[in-house]
Write a structure and sequence with these properties.
The chain has 211 residues and is of the alpha/beta class. It has helices at 13-24, 31-44, 52-57, 74-83, 87-101, 114-118, 132-145, 152-168, 190-205, and strands at residues 2-6, 28-30, 107-111, 124-129, 181-184. The chain has a single domain (2-204), classed as P-loop containing nucleotide triphosphate hydrolases (Rossmann fold), CATH 3.40.50. The radius of gyration is 17 Å and the shape is globular. Bound molecules: cytidine-5'-diphosphate.
């Protein structure tokens, strides 16, 4: 069983994907973490973000980078969004994601192109959204929780810029797959969003062979 969860920054897709993985007892891959690791690797190597070759070289990052606290920094996300537009970077990360999706027993993956490119054959697909203001507020709460300063208006414009880049790129743009269920979390608590996600996936998995 493959569950694909896509959506823009701070829509709640990561939290929902983790909860689905726990609920169905299958592993989860945060594919944004891979692109963030490329960004961190390029920065630490002193690479040039405008050079596709430097970005491609950074896809050979050591796995330890996936647990680096700097991975979650907003600037890492912004750089990841720039580098993820390079076709060579996306191609280099493709096999790892497809292999994860097709492992025995199934998997949940969250990202931008899981339902459209990585696993178009997924059994259930969610496209998770929330209004830009709500997403900016969530990101700001996350940042202040980590002791960082956050300005909600600045966050909102950064999120809008990242959406535009992720949706506007030629290669694997962020988009709702035709057969994905839309889940708008703007007005939902985390628990309500998770319950709604489980109900949507259950409906898609009806008749799926058990065990
Ligand atoms: O957590 P947040 O939604 O802010 O970002 P993320 O999921 O960690 O992804 C960071 C960036 O990586 C995104 O802005 C995308 O540009 C890129 N990404 C992608 O292109 N494809 C994916 N499957 C996942 C992330």
């Amino acid at each position: 069983m493959i569950i694909a969860v896509d959506g823009p920054a701070a829509s709640g897709k990561g939290t929902i994907a983790r909860a689905l993985a726990a609920h169905y007892g299958i592993p989860h891959l945060d594919t944004g973490g891979l692109y963030r690791a490329v960004a961190l690797s390029l920065r630490r190597a002193g690479g040039d973000p405008d050079n596709e070759g430097d970005a491609l070289a950074a896809t050979g990052f050591p796995d330890g980078l996936l647990a680096d606290p700097e991975l979650r920094a907003e600037e890492t996300g912004v750089l990841a969004s720039r580098l993820s537009a390079y076709p060579a970077v996306r191609a280099a990360l493709l096999k790892r994601q497809r292999d994860f999706a097709h492992q025995q027993g199934g998997a949940v993956l969250d990202g931008r192109d899981i339902g459209t490119v990585i696993a178009p054959e997924a059994d259930a697909k969610l496209y998770v959204i929330a209004s830009p203001r709500v997403r900016a507020e969530r990101r700001a709460t996350e940042m202040t929780g980590q002791g960082q300063k956050a300005d909600i208006d600045v966050m909102e414009s950064e999120i809008a810029a990242r959406d535009a880049r992720d949706m506007g790129r030629d290669n694997a743009p962020l988009a709702q797959a035709d057969d994905a269920d839309l889940l708008d979390t703007s007005e939902l608590t985390i628990d309500a969003a998770i319950q709604r996600a489980i109900a949507l996936v259950d409906a898609r998995l009806e008749g799926y062979p058990k065990g």
